[in-house]
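Schema walkthrough. Field components (list of strings):
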Amino acid sequence: MPIEVAYEAKIERLSILDQNGKLDEKLAKDTLTDKQVVQLYEHFSTCRHYDEVAFKLQRSGRMGTYPQNMGQEAAGAVALAAQKQDWMIPCYRENAALFLHGLPKENILLHWMGDERGNEIPDDVNMLPISIPIGTHMLHAAGIAWAMKLRGEKGVAFTFFGDGATSEGDFHEAMNFAGALNVPVVFICQNNGWAISTARSKQTASETFAQKALAYGIKTMQVDGNDIFAVYKAARDARKRAVKEHKPFFIETLTYRLGDHTTADDARRYRDADELESWKKKDPLIRMRKYLESKDLWNQSKQKKLEAKAKEDVSAIVKRAEGIEKPTIDDIFDYTFKELPIETRRQRDTLHTHSLGQFPEQETLQQTAAPAHA
Amino acid sequence: MSNLTLVQAINLALTQEMEADDRVIILGEDVGLNGGVFRVTEGLQQRFGEDRVVDSPLAESGIMGSAIGLAIAGMRPIPEIQFEGFLGPAYDQLVNHAGRYRTRSRGSVTVPMTVRVPVGGGIHAPELHSDSPEAIYAHHPGLKVVMPASPFDAKGLLISAIRDPDPVVFFEPKRLYRAFREEVPEDEYTIPIGQGKIVEEGSDLTVVTWGAPVLQCLEAMDSLPDDLSVELIDLRTIYPYDADLIVESVKKTGRCVIVHEAPKTCGFGAEIATMIQERCFLHLQAPIQRVTGFDTVMPYYKLELEYLPEAARITQGITACAAY
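Field assembly_structure (string):
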């Protein structure tokens, strides 16, 4: 028997707007309009300021641990490719996409301020709360996409995760389910080079993360993750195909976390200063501004206005988040089940009695002990 | 009304709920073409098609996680985990996601799904096919845990589980799948989750159990002297369990024996015993007895009947408690 090639593949990498703000006009055709680029630039700049403010809130003790999104804002262009009925199933470094898809901006702050009300998704928004464990939520995306297919809905599930998540078992199960069941989910792997302190080179021996999708029969590509045109085009085309053919798609975005993993981390312990500097030059905001200026769509006065507006907006968001009164302890019981079990209700209802939620009907205690405050 | 086994009663409940509600779908390993390894889902794929009875890839976490997504987006999935020993890979999805979404999203994301899992020993199965992990799942807030011990209860409880707005782990005792038949109404009916049942009334001692040991308890009770009147409670739901029914019975009898297949330490019997001393300490006339599996790994099947709480050990527990 001869040796035959059983399978052959290649991974394409798409780049449209380079780090100097130079656009590949041919590839950019029918992608983002000028208006959309301005919209994204303004939105991402506001998100960047939000990130800086969040960092300061943590440092000054006004907020708990927070993962900065800085440098990865361009992933937000995915939300511009999404329709209202689509789902966003995020990790925790996609603020820009979530806000564009309808999540109130104070929710993310509330979440990191230790308040579950930050996870409350508005009724008319298809989204899951940000996912803290790594790599487990992509299965929910596969299930949601599957439900949309069964229900005949013309939508897709966009799910975001990092390079580290691809080492988790659930990542592979999600990819396999999506491939085997042919469901419209778009996997977006934000390859930012680092899983806390673990370098991409230690994460996998694969040459790309994109190629992992091939093993599951899923079409896949790499894009410059700091290039809004490439991210948008990839997401839009993936969506189109997902809806039309009920097929999943995989996008690896090459990007970089300019900040620490979270405010509890210090990336200087494991990252090279030169590496950071080289990525600062590839910042999505810098190239967007250069591009807009080259097209006379932006100037210093607009920039000044934007910065003032971002400051004002974020300050109002912080005010809203900090202005929400602390919930009472009764609150933790009410969402355990739709209808609370008797014991859970008892614990809640006796919280403010002398038993402090410890079930005052204990006959022995009732007979032998007087109430503590009597 | 027909005379059905546990397997047939569950199959009937699945069939009727799938007919009544097209959001209900079944997914799992070998549940379709093969009708499940215990034939619980026999004939359902032929009847409802491959879109609604789905032979999934072989991955328990994948089954659980994608079922969570299905439930979130408006379906009523019934994932099957082939044996309780294989719940392990799906534990994270079940406990950290299914059980928490309602709370962490303040009710904006919910997971109405019923996880069917064959449970327990006594059928000469290979290793990791005979365990009783119900207490583990009862311990995790946000999950309901059900374990019927009769065809009639199984049908009514399964319909309740499928219609429940929250995730339910529905344990099916393998040993009872074809152990006996019972009259089961053709029409749909529900048995509320959280309601236990008095299998036999008595006045001297209360036995609390669930799952397959209900049968072994009845066997043990047959061997007791006529003047010892034992009340047998089948808990049916492990979480939230029917504490009031137990309390009422123990207040009457003053004595209680708890029987379960799972290991003794941290078994659900420990919770029940604590609850009894909290709520009817002064009514107790004897220490509460537990007759359970041992604190060991479930042995291979040559020794499984020595491990499980069989009638002789239950009789011993009842006699000791009654004599105190």
